[in-house]
Write a structure and sequence with these properties.
This protein is mostly helical. The protein has helices at residues 2-22, 28-35, 37-52, 54-70, 74-85, 89-101, 105-116, 124-136, 140-153, 159-172, 176-189, 193-205, 209-223, 228-233, 235-251.
Length: 252
């Protein structure tokens, strides 16, 4: 029996090691996992794996939405105060994220770019945040450059989100066929609601009527089964869809 226990510890450590490599985590996690199989796995579970899970993302989005509704500018104020008091790279990253969430993408992009010139120059999370900020501030070519760097260095990092954001940036910068190919690839690989909804937004705006009609059926089939909480969690995407529908109606 002790041998079985030891074997399970190693298997769990191997599972988390594969997750660490696939998601582009720092290599010190491998050292922790294999030097301390049981304790290292427990630490990795709570520090990395659960925060990355869909359930955790949903819970955090719900909590963040509630907090933002009660005090919309609190996180931005706190982040600015922390950076002004201690201008570390970590505080600058926090400020950049707060600026992006507060609808100030130009300043967020500047903050992210500053982070990328320091010790975290190769951090994919920061580069992805910079790409988001550049898409929102309509600096699409820079966003494409950043997303392609992520994909080249760590292809498994946020693979679906990188693909969809890259497709949006390609579309907005006039690369119509490249954008369509990227959306098709995302649908084939992931087949998620987000992938279909983003592709539907693109199809409506691009006047791809047959494609839009097919995707609309698939998206509505999903949303019809949603409860109120799920709708609230996906409200930004639903609003973008409604804006795309309105754009298509005005063009007829």
């Amino acid at each position: 029996m002790p041998f079985i226990g030891i074997g399970l510890h190693i298997l769990v450590a191997l599972f988390f090691a594969v997750h660490a490599v696939r998601t582009g985590r720092d290599m010190y996690w491998l050292l922790i996992l294999f030097m301390f199989p049981l304790l290292g796995s427990v630490v990795y579970l709570f520090a990395v794996y659960l925060p990355d899970s869909r359930l955790q993302h949903g819970a955090r989005r719900a909590i963040a939405s509630a907090a933002k509704a009660l005090d919309p500018t609190r996180e931005l104020r706190d982040a600015r105060a922390a950076f002004d008091y201690t201008p570390t790279a970590q505080n600058q990253m926090r400020l950049a994220a707060a600026l992006l969430n507060a609808g100030q993408p130009e300043e967020a992009a500047t903050s992210y770019e500053a982070c990328l010139s320091g010790p975290f120059a190769n951090d994919p999370e920061i580069r992805f945040g910079a790409a988001q900020a550049n898409v929102e501030s309509q600096n699409f070519e820079r966003a494409i450059e950043q997303l392609e760097l992520i994909r080249k260095a760590q292809p498994e990092f946020r693979a679906e989100q990188v693909s969809l954001l890259l497709a949006r940036a390609l579309s907005q910068s006039g690369h119509h066929m490249e954008a369509k190919a990227e959306f098709e690839s995302a649908i084939a690989k992931f087949g998620s609601f987000d992938a279909k909804a983003e592709y539907l937004v693109w199809a409506l705006i691009s006047n791809e009527r047959e494609l839009a009609a097919r995707l609309q059926v698939e998206v509505q089939r999903t949303t019809e089964r949603w409860n109120r909480q799920t709708r609230e969690l996906n409200l930004p995407m639903l609003r973008r869809l409604e804006a795309a529908y309105e754009h298509a109606r005005q063009r007829r």
